């Protein structure tokens, strides 16, 4: 672990400078050669500072670990307001809840970041009264950090499990949705199930994250650890948006079929998905909704041809949507895109109201978003295929898009397949 120890030593040496006893903001970057086996997730899990945030981009090209909240933000617009006063490369990390007015985001005290084959460790200082005093706080913070030790084995016997709703309740829920769809009040609604798994011992969030990262490829991996007992994490295939300057990329990921270990059978299932009317219709509803929401805030939108995204347990229908924003406004992107029709339904307001009235649990962070924003760029994934850890209880979430013609038994099987991506790692 030479890289992390030498980088921390360099940052600590920078704190020996004389800092003014006035308000201020600054940061120091330590180069971080990628020449050893340093794993930021494992290192993060060993620290006794919170919050902790881990992120790996879907392609694996970008990865980050953020530790300690120098400045917390309860919403993305609040974070964006802070960033307007600071350099382009300052990043704020965290979550937006399903209700995008609520968030858990923070400027970290310490940030490790890898991108384009290079890595660095960054230490932030900020104070609205005395930068000198915050430098001392930063030195004390660095003194608490420890080296890495191996992660625990995430698997252990499950004592009991409970679905919300159980299968009979799910069928009732789907029938209520189909009745509402037939009345014309809704075109689509996305309904979810939460399942609580109770274990004898506390579940280590980083162990579950590491196991998922190892097996669930072509996914964004994210983990927000609130404290020693509570975390929210997931491995999701879906991007909410990516912004580089004014350039915006988003996507419609809707329509699902099972995957298969045999490539030929998986390809046959993918072919069925590409030609199935129900799934194509479900996907196009999302495409049309995204385009309608963006049309007054972007130039011409480019909709790429449909493709099938093959994951470990399921395959999805995806259409990418590219455009250029009129203004580099992440708060606007969040307002326009979350929740999408792929996680809520259409029309958005009516579908959201149906979910709040009928689903027997609170979504909280599920189907919200996870990622980062900065002045120069931002990226958030949709917080699906996710888990909430509360001590020795793990809650897994999975949802399905309900449109006219949906079948309750088939939709139950779909959410079983989706939940298996994380469930199979625990049991």
TrEMBL record:
<dbReference type="InterPro" id="IPR005801">
    <property type="entry name" value="ADC_synthase"/>
</dbReference>
<feature type="domain" description="Chorismate-utilising enzyme C-terminal">
    <location>
        <begin position="167"/>
        <end position="418"/>
    </location>
</feature>
<feature type="binding site">
    <location>
        <position position="414"/>
    </location>
    <ligand>
        <name>Mg(2+)</name>
    </ligand>
</feature>
<comment type="similarity">
    <text>Belongs to the isochorismate synthase family.</text>
</comment>
<keyword id="KW-0460">Magnesium</keyword>
<feature type="binding site">
    <location>
        <position position="282"/>
    </location>
    <ligand>
        <name>Mg(2+)</name>
    </ligand>
</feature>
<dbReference type="InterPro" id="IPR004561">
    <property type="entry name" value="IsoChor_synthase"/>
</dbReference>
<keyword id="KW-0474">Menaquinone biosynthesis</keyword>
<feature type="active site" description="Proton acceptor">
    <location>
        <position position="188"/>
    </location>
</feature>
<dbReference type="InterPro" id="IPR034681">
    <property type="entry name" value="MenF"/>
</dbReference>
<dbReference type="GO" id="GO:0008909">
    <property type="term" value="F:isochorismate synthase activity"/>
</dbReference>
<dbReference type="InterPro" id="IPR044250">
    <property type="entry name" value="MenF-like"/>
</dbReference>
<dbReference type="Pfam" id="PF00425">
    <property type="entry name" value="Chorismate_bind"/>
</dbReference>
<comment type="pathway">
    <text>Quinol/quinone metabolism; 1,4-dihydroxy-2-naphthoate biosynthesis; 1,4-dihydroxy-2-naphthoate from chorismate: step 1/7.</text>
</comment>
<keyword id="KW-0413">Isomerase</keyword>
<comment type="function">
    <text>Catalyzes the conversion of chorismate to isochorismate.</text>
</comment>
<keyword id="KW-0479">Metal-binding</keyword>
<protein>
    <recommendedName>
        <fullName>Isochorismate synthase MenF</fullName>
        <ecNumber>5.4.4.2</ecNumber>
    </recommendedName>
</protein>
<dbReference type="InterPro" id="IPR015890">
    <property type="entry name" value="Chorismate_C"/>
</dbReference>
<comment type="pathway">
    <text>Quinol/quinone metabolism; menaquinone biosynthesis.</text>
</comment>
<feature type="active site" description="Proton donor">
    <location>
        <position position="238"/>
    </location>
</feature>
